[in-house]
Please model this.
Amino acid sequence: MKLVRHGRKGREQPGLIDAQGRLRSLAGIVPDIDASVFGPAGQRALRRIDPQTLPLVAGRPRLGVPLVGISKFIGIGLNYRDHAAEAQMAIPTSPIVFNKWTTCISGPNDPVLRPPGAHKLDWEVELGVVIGRPTRFVREVDALEAVAGYCLVNDVSERAYQLEQGSQWNLGKGCDTFGPVGPWLVSKDEIADPQNIDLWLEVNGERMQQGNTRDMIFGVAELVAFLSRYMTLLPGDLIATGTPPGVGMGRKPPRYLQPGDVVTLGSPQLGLQRQRIRSAAQQPA
Ligand code: ZN
Model:
C-alpha cells in the first residue's frame, strides 16, 4: 500500500495511491496517516479496504510528508563504501548516527531553502525506514517486524555547517527544509527486500547518484537492532539509512546547489521527489 497525505501545507488529508497510480481519499476512514494507521493493527484494517471503493481525488494536489508523528528523524552516515571513499573518510566499523531535527521535515516537492550564509549545500538520496511499533533491544533477526514501511528521503546537507564547525554533524543536517520525505509511505508488504532498492538523483537533469541498497555497509535490520540498544524507537520514527556515492562534495571540483537548481530523486519502489532550491529569508519564525 502506498499511503500519502495531500493538500495544502498544514491542511493535508490522508489518501492512498491505487494500483493504477491514481490518488484516492482516505478521509473519513482514518484520521490521518499516523501511528494508528501504520501500526500492525492499522495496516491489517487498511488491507481490508478495497481501494477501488474509495473516492478519487480530483486534480493534482500537493503531496505532503506522507505520515505524521515523527518523534525522531535519525540519520546514518557513510553507510556505503564508495560514498565514504568520496567523502575521504574511513569505512565505519559501527554505524555513524546523527540527528535531523524534526523541524527540517518537508513535503517531497516543497522547495529546499538555502540558509543565509550557507554555500556548500549538497544532496543525498536515501532509503527511509519508518518504525511501526515501540522497539527496544530488538534482535537483528526480529528487527524488520518493527518496520511499518519505507519512503524516499533527501538528506539535504550543508557541508560547511556539517564538517567545518567542530566534530558534530548535526548543524549541517537539520536546517529547515533539509528533510524532504515522500511522496509515499510504502507499507513493508510491498517491499520484498529492503536490501534491493534502486535509488537515483539528478541535478538540473544531470544524473549524479545511482545506487542500490544492497551496497549498504549496515543493512536495515542491523540498523534498527543497533539503534534500539541506545533508545526506544517509537511508531513513526524515521531512519535515513545513508547515501550511495555521487554527492556534490565528492565531485572534482565540488558541485554545490545554488538557488534555482532543481533536484530530482527517485526509486522504482518509493516514487519521485522534485525540489527547487531557493534562498531562505533571514527572518524570525
Ligand atoms: Zn545521509
Remarks:
- The two ends are 36 Å apart (CA to CA).
- Residues 73-279 form a domain with the Fumarylacetoacetate hydrolase; domain 2 fold (CATH 3.90.850.10).
- The pocket of zinc ion is lined by residues 75, 124, 126, 155, 240, 242-243 (CB under 6 Å).
- The first helix runs from residue 35 to 38.
